[in-house]
User: Fold this.
Amino acid sequence: MTDGMTADIAQASATTFYCGIDFGTSNSTVSLATADRHFSVPVEGDAEAIPSAIFFNFTTGKPSFGRAAIRDYMSGENGRFMRALKSVIGRPIFHEKTYIGKRHVTLADILGLFLRHLKATTESQIGRDLDSVVLGRPVQFIENAADLDRKAQADLEGAARKVGFRHIEFQFEPIAAALEYETVVTGEQLILIVDIGGGTSDFSIVRVAPDRIARNDRSGDILANRGIRVGGTDFDRALSMQQVMPAFGHGSHYGDKHIEMPNGLYVDLSTWSNINAIYDRKIHADVKLLRRQAESPALLDRLLAVIEGRAGHRLIGDIERAKIDLSATVQTEIALDYIERGFSLPVRRDDFVTAIADLMARIEACIGATVADAGIAPNGIDTVFLTGGSSMALPVQALVRRLFPQAQVVSGDVFGAVGKGLGLDARRKFGR
Ligand SMILES: Nc1ncnc2c1ncn2[C@@H]1O[C@H](COP(=O)(O)OP(=O)(O)OP(=O)(O)O)[C@@H](O)[C@H]1O
Ligand SMILES: [Mg+2]
Assistant:
């Protein structure tokens, strides 16, 4: 527990706590609000964000969470590692049973374990049970399919109910970020929230002002909300497919008929939520067969090394790290000795920019549509509030400055703003 948190809890010990949970594709946070304060909860040691990661240890039968899960996976423990669970909420596979070691469970059960962990960690710090929560949600879990989107929210609600939350409300993640930003503004502003996380990009245009905070109904201040399923995990996939997968045989050929290697294999290996699919026994056998007929067998040996070493998450994690490096440096190196001795791949910032060009075009179009929905000109935006880890990517920063040259650009607490705003919203919703 941090000193700040200790002080926050001590100050607040006689009052009610209102809880917000930002269950993210990549990272999750919990926040608490009391009558006069709000703060993030240290959910893993001192850290206020926990990677949305679970590792099932087949030897001990126990799950681990967050950084501990990543450590267990990396240390080669026998088990199953899972990330980006939020990406499959609302999909049929979310409710399909699968074997995790000897356990027959659904992804919904696994999401429940993660939420239960967040809830229990928070409860142990405040010494009381929580039964109400505001959960964040992207503007669209699933694009342009209202029924599936409703199902996705119902899936998340069902998981929260199962772990003991009785009063569950939802708030759009970018609106939560706006509520958090509003606590520091000194005058009225029209703001555009740009929340680019691991799985989605969400945009809201909101009128904020110190004297509007206390109003019960803010619907008139919310001018527009839009969102698309494009986020940092898609940047990782794009970079992987363009720069890394060719070195594992993507685009190479096999057999007398000179057939190209199946694309889906490489897409799965580049997609955080699908990686476990490539460890399937049949896929392994197929790849061994393809290797025998391959024109470049050495490339397929690397693919086999990933499958046999269960190294898919490690590989995409290294690609993600290279992407993050490229926010600070123009060139970096992905060291892949665990695949093949001496094997490494250079990646340049320009390569990344090319790889994500189509995704950036979708982000730009969605921002344009959000501004149009609000019925304002781009120069009507006073401030662009950037949040979500992927808002630190240079192409995103450049886009925002190009579209809103006159606006003040504020980079908030990129991993915590949404969560903190959800705590504030919980106080608004449950505190009456
Ligand atoms: N410096 C950086 N440059 C580029 N990307 C970054 C940087 N730091 C983190 N990221 C990316 O930010 C993403 C995670 O951001 P965040 O934790 O805000 O997402 P999330 O809230 O879990 O996802 P979502 O809100 O979409 O469900 C990851 O894809 C990560 O690679
Ligand atoms: Mg987020």
Remarks:
- The mean pLDDT is 95.
- Residues 107-126 form the longest helix (20 residues).
- The longest strand covers residues 189-196.
